Amino acid sequence: MKTEEEEEEEEEWRSAREVLLIVLPYLPSLFELLSMTRVSRSLRDAIRDETALWTNIVVEPPLSSRLTDDILSDITSKSAGKLKTLILRRCLRVTDTGLRRVVDSNPLITKIIVPGCSGLTPEGIMECVVSLSKNNHKVETLHINGVNGFTKQHLSALLTYLSSSEGATIDLEVCPKCDEIRMIPACSRESCNLKQTNERKCRGCWLCIPRCAECSVCLGPDTESQEAACGNDDVLCLECWLVLPKCRFCNKPYCTNHSSRRHEIATTDAAARPSFECEACYYRAGTNPYEVDYQI
Ligand SMILES: [Zn+2]
Ligand SMILES: [Zn+2]
Ligand SMILES: [Zn+2]
Ligand SMILES: [Zn+2]
Ligand SMILES: [Zn+2]
Question: What class, spelled out in words, does domain 4-182 have in CATH?
Answer without folding.
Answer: alpha beta
